[in-house]
Specification:
Number of helices: 12
Radius of gyration: 20 Å
Bound molecules: magnesium ion
Number of domains: 2
Helix content: 40-55%
CATH architecture of the largest domain: 3-Layer(aba) Sandwich
CATH class of the largest domain: Alpha Beta
Shape: elongated
Oligomer: single chain
CATH superfamily of the largest domain: HAD superfamily/HAD-like
Strand content: 5-15%
Structural class: alpha/beta
Length: 293
């Protein structure tokens, strides 16, 4: 995998390369025990689920496409219009990725000039309402993961385990309503001291990404001020939420070759995979960012 071409937005490239050269313990960027670990400058880390921990972002994208293409074909036949398919970059990444399910349906339909009744979460999958279409997408998603399972990003799991060993509190914040099933399926639930997902959001009336509510709620649940916590996200709407929430650092994972968009929308550090960085580097970036604010 090629190294990310992006640099942290608030840190100059030359400063970053200096920080990278000092990857080994260095008292200039933190209080370090001789030959040992540096003092940590953040107390909590909040991770997104799909595309950060689990390889489910592609499954979501596939399920959205199948649902919307079916619906758009029905509409095209009904109105004698050309069928214009649901595409990955201009549609999925722009309107759906990371957002709560029904918000994603509404945002994409609006982009095509389509207005449907909201309906209710109890609407049968495929009913011609925002909720009905969202429920159909969810049914397709569940069919796929039931059949094919859920993969994990090993680099993310390794970083989370290292953080936990160093005493950092770890939380999960996701728009997904399927997080419980996915965490149980992958055995990752015990890693997280708090989980703020789509169901919690509905119960508490939290706004979805790009608003920061789910991240700030997770941070509050961990008893850590947002400025002392970091956010790890792969969606543009997610890094926007992290930036709005005033977190100590926002890490964007550019799984979609979208490093520039992530950086432009609030990511301080952009990587293609967390294997490209380290806890020590993240710690130094948190400290450097705080000093630059
Ligand atoms: Mg995601």
């Amino acid at each position: 995998m090629e190294p990310a071409d992006d640099q942290p937005a608030s840190i100059t490239p030359s400063r970053l390369s200096t920080i990278r050269r000092r990857k080994s313990a260095d008292n200039k960027f933190g209080t370090c025990a001789p030959g040992g670990q540096c003092e940590l400058h953040f107390e909590a880390a909040i991770f997104d689920l799909d595309g950060v921990i689990t390889k489910t972002a592609a499954v979501h994208s596939m399920a959205w496409k199948r649902m919307f293409d079916d619906y758009l074909q029905i509409r095209a036949a009904r109105h004698h219009e050309p069928f214009n398919e649901f595409a990955h970059a201009p549609d999925y990444l722009a309107y759906v990725d990371g957002r709560p399910r029904y918000d994603g349906v509404e945002a994409f339909l609006k982009s095509r000039g389509i207005k449907l009744p909201l309906g209710t979460p109890e609407d049968l999958p495929g009913r011609e309402t925002v909720c009905g279409l969202g429920n159909r997408k969810n049914a397709i998603f569940n069919q796929i993961i039931e059949r094919e399972g859920v993969g994990l990003f090993d680099s993310t799991i390794a970083l989370i385990r290292e953080m936990l060993q160093r005493g950092i509190k770890v939380g999960l914040a996701t728009s997904s309503n399927n997080s419980e099933a996915i965490l149980n399926k992958t055995g990752t639930a015990p890693l997280f001291a708090t989980i703020v997902d789509g169901n919690v959001s509905e119960n508490l009336g939290l706004k979805g990404k790009p608003e920061p509510d789910i991240f700030t709620t997770a941070s509050a649940n961990l008893g850590v001020p947002c400025a002392r916590a970091i956010v790890v996200e792969d969606a543009v709407s997610g890094v926007q939420a992290g930036a709005k929430g005033g977190f100590g650092l926002v890490i964007g994972i550019a799984r979609e070759n979208n490093a520039r968009e992530l950086r432009a929308n609030g990511a301080d550090l952009v990587v293609h995979d967390l294997a490209e960085t380290s806890l020590e580097q993240i710690n130094r970036l948190v400290q450097a960012r705080r000093a630059s604010v």
